[in-house]
Specification:
Helices cover 49% and strands 11% of the residues. By secondary structure, the chain is mostly helical.
Length: 168
Amino acid sequence: MAKILRNIDVELTPGGIQFAIDEVKDFIEQLQTSLSELAEALTQAGQEAVKIQIASLDAVYTAELENSIQGYYDADLHEGVIFTNVFHALFVEYGTGVVGAGTYPTTTADGWQYDINNHGNEGWVYRNDRDGHFYWTKGYPARPFMFNAFEWLKEAAPEMASRLWTQM
């Protein structure tokens, strides 16, 4: 990561001290601006990474899920949020049934259960509202599009920060 510290030469005079104070204030303002730009850039990059993961993991109803991915950056709070409002997104992310159990790359969210109705290997039949047909399943493995995008962001963030801070 780039060095973000700045050397300030100070003359021990009232004018020199004021100059140093002004330089520190200017640096703090530049740093805050850069951090805001980084958070906004990470939010945008994260949104794209989520969409790429959805497509590459061959998620069910890929277009609907991919089109539902939204993100926003709140400059006042200095935070970005990436989310989906599609109901089945959780089932895609964590997987379902006995097939999905153990396929998520880390410990799943508190309370997530893979076979809540204890269907086991017998599976279950469900009606697909999109085409009206009935299907049998034992579940689906996890397709952790959010988890994978987050892991990618953790790897990409230092490089993105370095590029922004070298411009300061």
